[in-house]
Amino acid sequence: MDNRLLEMLVCPLCKGPLELKRSETAQELICYADRLAYPVRDGIPLMLENEARAIDPETETRPSRTPSP
User: Fold this and answer.
1) Domain 3-54 is in which class?
2) Where are the domains of the chain?
3) Is the pLDDT score of 43 beyond 60?
4) 7-37 burial by CB neighbour count: b if 16+ within 10 A, else e?
């Protein structure tokens, strides 16, 4: 997924930031505020609430970021 596109996309519900999560089999855009994961299929994000899956806040946590030196 293009980084420029990722910077422009926001959660359709809360308008908050999304983070791209990649696994070996799929890509998803995660909204931690709404606890939803929007699928990315064939490079196209499906930004519809009925396409999103609910994420468990205890197992799906925001990746920790280390400050840059």
Assistant:
1) mainly beta
2) 3-54
3) yes
4) eeeebeeeeeebeeeeeeeebbbbbbebebb
